[in-house]
Amino acid sequence: MVDSYLSRARRAAFAVGLVFMTALGAAPAQALNIPSAPERPHLEALYEAVIHIGPTRSLGHGPNGERRVMPITGGTFKGERLEGEIKAGGGDRQLIRPNGTREQETSYEMKTVDGVTIKVRNETVVHDDLTGSAPYAMSYIHLSVPAGRYAWLNNYVVVGTLTPIPDEPRSMLLNAYRVMP
After folding, report:
1. What is the pLDDT of residue 5?
2. Which of 7-21, 46-60, 74-88, 121-135 bottoms out in mean pLDDT, i.e. has the lowest?
3. Is residue 66's pLDDT more than 60?
4. Alpha carbon of 3 to those of 6, 10, 150: distances in Å?
């Protein structure tokens, strides 16, 4: 189970790092002298979600840090092509590493206004930015959607940013973006 978690965490970190490295102007293909490098990907807004969370419960300390869990109690999401509610019952499992970096594995369901259930799994890394500005909080978001109106969501890499909502201490703002060529 630990190997599976580490493998998923490495894939997520690679995907998020590659997307944001590329978005910031790095050109790995040019450095490798690849003659026909693909265009730099860009991010297209997909949806914005307000996620409500319950109290944090510690699961104890281990060799890699403190384990915590927080229930997801609901919320809403809205984008140009989809909107609906975040269902209560999901959860956010966290590992707080000794250096303060937080790894989060979040799993929940979103239900669209027309009744389609979308399974969501976020893998997020959160830490204080070394420049002293806002904390770094980037997610790899895996969406699992049944056949039909929203099936197109299964065909994209989705990344996101996570931000606390100042006036709502038990809520987070997730901005989701699909990576486009």
Report:
1. 47
2. 7-21
3. yes
4. 5, 10, 32
Residues 6+ apart with CB under 8 A from 7: none
Domains and CATH numbers, the chain: 41-180 (2.40.160.20)
Note the pLDDT of residue 6.
46
Indicate the DSSP class of residue 51. E
The residues, ordered by sequence, that sit 6+ positions from 15 with a Cβ below 8 Å of its Cβ are 140, 157, 159
What span, in angstroms and rounded, lies between the C-alpha atoms of 45 and 118? 17
Q: Is the pLDDT of residue 162 over 70?
A: yes
CB contact set of 90 (below 8 Å; sequence gap of 6+):
71, 72, 106, 107, 108, 109, 120
